[in-house]
Amino acid sequence: MNSERQYMIVKILNRLLIKGYSLLEAIDMMKQVHGNIISRMKQKLDEGNLLSHTFKILKFKPFVHDTIQIGEKSNKIQVAFGLLEEQFDFYLKIKKQMNKVLLYPVILFGFALFCFEMIRINLYPIIENLLIEFSIIQNKVLIIISFHLLKWIACILFMIFFILYHKKNLANLVPSIKLYRTIILAKQLVILLSCGNSLEEAFIILQSSLNPKIYNFKHLESALLNDSKLGLSSSYSESFLQYFKLGMKTNDLVNALKDYITIYEEILIDHLTKLSYYIQFGLFSLLSINIFLIYYIVMIPMLQISENI
Q1: Which residue from 156, 126, 153, 128 is spatially nearest to 140, judged by alpha carbons?
Q2: Where would you tag: which of 10, 30, 114, 264 has the fewest CB atoms within 10 A of its CB?
Q3: Does the residue 219 lie in any domain?
Q4: 277 found inside a domain
Q5: Which residue in 83, 62, 72 sits closest to 11, CA to CA?
């Protein structure tokens, strides 16, 4: 089941719960909309499974059943659904932007790499034989750059992603990644605090559920209590700490974190939108240069050959 369909189910359930329907009534009312999924959901609930475990069985996103589980433990399932809808909406916005930033450029880059390689393998050897026959010499360096530039760039990008994947804290050096991770942490804190957990309990839960290679809570506690400086590779931004301290000072941490999320979600989306423009411009410029180089090393010799005939 795709993310959009999961979001629709969560959204409709939340709206029905807000209207005052019980969970079972809400599920029954959804049978006409998502028949198969809702039937399986009701079956699993009738078998005695918790709603969070049912979502897990139905292969919903991990944050869905984790959030519902928090709501079940605190008996605040409606609050959990409301926050879950907001979190899912954010997830889909980021997914859409990441498709623009990475998916489309990667497909175009891969297609161009394939086409240029086919020219190098199938077409250029024929032209090279003709050039030898007519004693026309080409610039070897230019040929290497024309047919291997994209492969070099692909290798460099692969190495960067490989390093960032295995050294997750280094990814925090990228501002957009750090901001995204901080927003995710803020959302998790809002869910836990809104469902009745104390701040200490919330930190304990997050330490066991979030990746320790990404989130170092000792650094966060030290920064909050001792005003120590955060390193560049820290997952926490200075703005997050400011809102956190303000929330603790005013004894309204949940609303302070919600304000942070609202403001910085928009900033993150804006960053990703601009990044997609830069990547597309860079990619189109790179492909244009590469096409020109290949045209130069293929067509110019052909014109020279035609003059010698």
Answers
A1: 128
A2: 114
A3: yes
A4: yes
A5: 83
